[in-house]
Amino acid sequence: MNIRRIKALAKKESIVVTRDTRSLGAAIFIPLLMIFMFGYALSLDVDRIPLLIVDQDKTPSSRELIQRLGDSRYFSIARYLDRTAEIEPALNRREALMALVVPSGYSSRVKEGVKSPIQAIFDGSDSNTASIASGYFQAVTNGLNMELQTGRLKKAGFKMADMPLEPRIRVWFNPELKSRNFIIPGLSAIIINIICSFLTSLLISRERETGTLEQLISTPITGGELLVGKLLPFIGVGLTVMILVAGAGILIFGVPFRGSYIDLFIATLLFLIGTLSWGLLISVIAKNQLQASQIAMLSVMLPSFLLSGFIYPIENMPIVLQAITYIVPARYFVEILKGLFLKGVGLSVLWPQYLALAVYAFLILNLARRKLGRRLL
Amino acid sequence: MKLFLNRLRVMLLKELVQAIRDPRLRILIVGPPLLQLIAFGYAANLDLRNIEIALYDEDRSPLSRELAFTFSSSGYFRFTTRITNPEEMTRLMNTGKVKAILHLGPDLSARVKSGRTALVQVIVGGTNSNTASLVQSYSLQIIERFNRARLKERLNRNPALKKVLPAGVSGIIQPEVRVWYNVGLLSRNYYVPAIIAMVIMTVVLMLTAMAVVREKEVGTMEQIMVTPIRPFEFILGKTIPFALIGIGQTTLITAVGVFWFGVPMRGHLLLLFASLLIYLLSSLALGLLISTVSRNQQQALVTTFFFFFPALLFSGFIFPIANMPEVIQYMTYLNPLRYFLVIIRGLFLKGAGLDVLWPQLAALLAIGLFVMTLAVRRVSKTLD
Q1: Are residues A76 and A91 in the same domain?
Q2: Do A293 and B345 touch (CB under 8 A)?
Q3: What's the pLDDT at A272?
Q4: Are residues A108 and A216 in the same domain?
Q5: Contact state of A115 with B185 under an 8 Å Cβ cutoff
Q6: B366 or B200: which leads in pLDDT
Q7: Which residue from B22, B124, B324 is facing A172, i.e. has the nearest CB?
Q8: What domains, with CATH codes, occur in chain B?
Q9: Shared-domain flag, residues A113 and A187
Q10: Which pairs count as long-range contacts for A115-118, CB under 8 Å and 24+ apart, including other chains?
Q11: pLDDT of residue A353
């Protein structure tokens, strides 16, 4: 390794990076854009579910039931319909995600205390929203049922505890259950992963396509030197992106950060080395830039989005896919970031994840060095 | 006319050969849809079963064991760890080994026996708010069921109670919950049709953008300019091969989705391909437009990303549009992906027809025509 050559190359690459304002702008702007989008606009929280009402009873007690639903923050009444036949076209047009039918005779049945059926229809297309919505719906009707039951018992002179067991649910790490709090840390990992591997995936294929690779070959530079020189500027870019993204998440969106910044720095550095080398490896293997970009897309974007546990829990996946997630570096980085941001645990608890990132970085870096070395000979 | 057809044929042939000859590119045409099918068919799953939880039973009574059994036999939860002291709770939750802890206090059975209310604590890790809210609602349901069983015992013992509560233990209000369109509540039925929209957006748009820019980059654009080919023909030659690729990919995804993943296809296939053509119009046009504003392939790629990310995230693909702030909800009306997703999910899951989907199709067509006009104008300017 010749430090002088590395320095020269790193300087040249830095100039290339800073001069291409669109790519650099994208590297900085896309992450910020995404953080703002997720922070302000994108949420998996299921609330204000638009609800259609068919009230065939039209009595105070049917209105009370409807108001209960409308008052809870989970539902919002979209429209009242006159006939049940109108439900289907309305759901087809996606005007609402569920419909409630209160049949006539509801109030008199409730008064007598006999079973009083009501009907709830859910648009199950989005299964997650539907199952959470039906959970909320049943919680509301359960509460109302309890009140009716104890009311009748009290009136008849029975004394009994409301319920033998009372559930107390405590949510740790994210008590308000804001999806933002887990999406933003995970997203930072994904953004860095995608941006960085894309930036480096075009490096060598571009040299090849424009013919400057031959010029490089004629210089005394070795594979290792080329690798380090090419990577250094991008480590700088990656760290800047991380600072911006984490900063925006913490300062603007109030995502808690409970861990240590040093742990965050170490994890980011390890992850950057691995992911940048992966991009470089792609650029060595690919024949041209188009190919490189497609390989990067397939090998980075999909796995990091879907197999990292960023949104979709890994435990839900089939065993084969679960096994594959172990070779997706984003998986470990997402776990570390969630630990640092939400749980306040770092290197001492998550050392296996740090170790995995280090091993990955070491392996890919070496592989890239060897491939590059062969190209240069 | 004959000349035109001839030139077009040559151009088409050249592009198709170029796309198919390269074995790596061939994989890239079939690879993304297949990978996305596997990923979204198997991995993108928010439904939860067998959630790993820990049991912290301080009571160790028949009642506490019965309650724990109700949890594990529900199918939602699986006890993987038993703990005996509170310190272990923190450790377990910090490492993320379990999603929740069921904590039964030492006085549980004593309180229930004496007719008082006993607290059942469920500690949930909120690192994934979606998982957490499902855990929450499942455990509420289980405890509610347990309470009902106790009430039933009381009713059986005391016939006078039955008169007061003629509806019995299941409660007075009887909600009948019906799920339409996706009866089994399977995530894959929601995601697999949407892959068509996403693959077209990524592969077709990117291929179109890069193909034109590549001519510029390697300098063959000048060669094309000196040929008698007209801008219109150039555009057709550069778009039709990718449109064909898109149609092929859609066929592949639909076939695998229906026959392998068992996703219902309730609408008309003809309508599916008709709407695909309209959607392709805007994807191809956007690709061309991006190629005109990019100098090299890297720029084209980055610009594609600029467009693609927001388009995907603000389409309702994963994140429901209804959850977005109102201003943004209005902005999504400009997003072609939004309309195509409604169309394609409507077709697959709801069996919706032209009578329901025409507003979406009209909007998609309007966007496509507008962007195509813009793109054609810009491309013509470069070629002249």
Answers
A1: yes
A2: no
A3: 94
A4: no
A5: no
A6: B366
A7: B124
A8: 2-44+186-383 (no CATH), 51-164 (3.40.1710.10)
A9: no
A10: A115/B167, A115/B168, A115/B170, A115/B172, A115/B174, A116/B167, A116/B172, A116/B173, A116/B174, A117/B174, A117/B175, A117/B176, A118/A65, A118/B173, A118/B174, A118/B175, A118/B176
A11: 92
H or E element at residue B119 = strand B118-125
In a domain, A164, yes or no: no
Residue A83 lies in a domain: yes
A162 domain residue, yes or no: no
Of A93-97, A158-162, A265-269, minimum mean pLDDT range: A158-162
Picking from B129, B172, B183, the nearest residue to A179 by CB comes out as B129
**Nearest Cβ partner of B185 from A127, A306, A318?**
A127
**Is any Cβ of chain A less than 8 angstroms from the Cβ of B334?**
no
Domain of A276 in residue numbering reads as: 3-42+178-376
**Would you state the pLDDT for residue A239?**
92
| Residue A46 vs residue B349, higher pLDDT | B349
CA dihedral for B354, B360, B362, B367, sign (positive or negative)? negative
Please report residues of A whose CB lies closer than 8 A to that of B153: none
Which H/E stretch holds residue A224?
A: helix A223-247
Q: Please state, in angstroms and rounded to a whole number, the distance separating the CA atoms of residues B57 and B85.
A: 10
Q: What is the pLDDT of residue A164?
A: 66
Q: Of A122, A155, A188, which residue sits at a domain end?
A: A155
Is residue A369 located within the same domain as residue A280? Answer: yes
Task: Show the tokens assigned to B40.
Answer: 């979204």
Q: CB of A296 within 8 A of CB of A201?
A: yes
* A355 shares its domain with A213: yes
Q: Which residues of B touch A167 (CB under 8 A)?
A: 120, 122, 139-140, 143
How many domains are there within chain A?
2
Residues 107-126 of B with CB under 8 A from A: 112, 115-126
Mean pLDDT comparison of A16-30, A192-206, A235-249, highest-scoring range: A235-249
Q: For residues A115 and A261, state if they share a domain.
A: no
Q: Nearest Cα to A191, choosing from A232, A233, A230, A249?
A: A249
DSSP B50: S
Which A residues, 288 through 317, put their C-beta within 8 Å of a C-beta on chain B? 289-291, 293-295, 297-298, 302, 306-307, 311-313, 315-317
Residues A248 and A284 in one domain: yes
Among A84, A114, A293, the residue to mutate for chain B (most B Cβ within 10 A): A293
Task: Tell me the mean pLDDT in the region A41-55.
Answer: 81
- Domain membership of residue A348 (yes or no) is yes
The pLDDT of A81-108, averaged and rounded, is 87
Same domain, A198 and A122: no
Retrieve residue A136's tokens: 């909320």
pLDDT per position as a tens digit, A270-293: 999 999 999 989 988 887 777 787
Higher pLDDT, B154 or B365: B365
**CB–CB of A165 and B118 under 8 A?**
yes
Tell me the per-residue pLDDT of A211-253, one tens digit each, with 9 for 90 and over. Answer: 777 777 777 777 788 888 888 888 988 999 899 889 988 998 8
> Is the CB of B166 less than 8 angstroms away from the CB of A34?
no
Residue A165 sits at the chain B interface (C-beta within 8 Å): yes
Closest chain B residue to A259, measured at CA: B94
A376–chain B Cβ distance below 8 A for any pair: no
Q: Is B338 helix (H, G, I), strand (E, B) or coil?
A: helix
Q: Inform me whether the C-beta atom of residue A253 falls under 8 Å from chain B C-beta atoms.
A: no
Looking at residue B278, what is its pLDDT?
93
Determine the distance from the C-alpha atom of residue B65 to the mean position of all C-alpha atoms in its chain, rounded to a whole number. Answer: 40
Nearest to A124 among B175, B176, B183 (CB): B183
pLDDT tens profile B220-250: 777 777 777 777 778 888 888 888 888 988 9
Q: Where are the alpha helices (DSSP H) in chain B?
A: 2-21, 23-38, 62-73, 86-95, 108-113, 129-157, 159-164, 187-199, 205-218, 220-226, 231-255, 269-292, 297-313, 326-331, 336-345, 354-383
